[in-house]
C-alpha cells in the first residue's frame, strides 16, 4: 500500500512533466506556423521562459525525490530533439 | 504507513517552497544592499524571473495534489508582504 502511493506520485510527476514538455513543443509549433520566425527575439524569449519553467518543475520533482535527475534529463533531451526537428522542418520551407 | 508517506511528500513540498520563497527574499535583500535600486530594470527582471519560477513549482505541487491552492497562495502572500517591508525599509534610507 505504501509503495503504491509513492509510485502514484512518481508516475503523476513524470506524466505532468511530459505533458508540460509537449505543451512547449505545441506552443513553438503554433508560433512557427502563425506568428514569428525562430530568429525573432519573441520566439527565443517564449522558448527560454517556458524551458526555465519546465526546468524549475523538474528540479522541484528531483528535490522531492519523485524523479531521478536522469529521468528529468531524458525528458529535456527528448524535447530538445523534437524542437530541433521542428526547426529543421521550418528551415526547409 | 501509507498516510505517513503522503504526509512526508506534502511536508517536504511545503518546506521546499518555503525555502525557495526565502531564497528570493534573500536575493532581493542582497540586491538592495549591494547592487541596484528597486527602480532598476535588473531588479524587476530578477524578481519577475524568480517569482515565475516559484509559481511554476507551486502550480506543479498543486497539480500533484501535494499542497492545496490556498497553501501555495499563503506562501506567496507572505513573501509579498516581506518584499514590501524590505522595499519600504529601503525607501526610508
UniProtKB/TrEMBL annotation, chains A, B:
Record-linked Pfam families: DUF1507
Entry protein name: UPF0358 protein BACCIP111883_00622
Superkingdom of origin organism: Bacteria
Family according to the record: Belongs to the UPF0358 family.
HAMAP family found in the cross-reference section: UPF0358
Organism: Sutcliffiella rhizosphaerae
UniProt feature coiled coil, ranges: none
Gene3D superfamilies from the UniProt entry: SO2669-like
Amino acid at each position: 500500500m505504501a509503495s503504491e502511493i509513492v509510485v502514484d506520485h512518481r508516475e503523476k510527476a513524470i506524466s505532468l512533466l511530459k505533458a508540460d514538455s509537449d505543451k512547449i513543443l505545441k506552443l513553438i509549433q503554433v508560433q512557427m506556423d502563425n506568428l514569428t520566425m525562430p530568429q525573432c527575439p519573441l520566439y527565443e524569449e517564449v522558448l527560454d521562459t517556458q524551458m526555465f519553467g519546465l526546468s524549475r518543475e523538474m528540479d522541484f520533482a528531483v528535490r522531492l525525490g519523485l524523479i531521478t535527475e536522469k529521468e528529468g534529463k531524458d525528458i529535456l533531451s527528448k524535447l530538445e530533439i523534437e524542437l530541433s526537428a521542428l526547426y529543421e522542418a521550418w528551415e526547409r520551407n
